[in-house]
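FW: tagging you since you asked about this chain on Friday. Here's the raw sequence from the shared folder, copied in full. Didn't touch anything.
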Amino acid sequence: VGLVLVLAIHPGSSETKELLGAGSTKQRNLDLVDNFLDLGRNLIPNNVFQASMESAITRYTEEVIGNSSIITGKTLHYRSGTNTLGIIFFCLTFGTVLGSLGPSGKPLINFFSIIDQVIMKMVYMVMW
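HL: got it, structure written out here
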């Protein structure tokens, strides 16, 4: 399949670049602090259900003056896509706290154990 696509598309060909144009993507130096803050916002999500649908990102507003653009402000936005890091962190924290509850957390542990067994049986049925 890959060989057929390479022969059909010819990636890196100068004719393809001329046909598609130079593109409108421009290089941007993002602030390192904003990247770490986005990582922290995604690590500990405000809402687990929102984390299953969106992830946090810092967006820059810029103003074009002459031939250059200047970043005038930053805002927090949510883009579509699963925040996997936040979901994994929540599940690890939830499981750790649930395990530390002792006998009072046992019914919920049994519930998740039964769910695990049901899902595994479904997987085995699909595989065989």
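FW: The CA atoms of residues 42 and 82 lie 10 Å apart.
HL: agreed, and The mean pLDDT is 83.
FW: great, closing this out.
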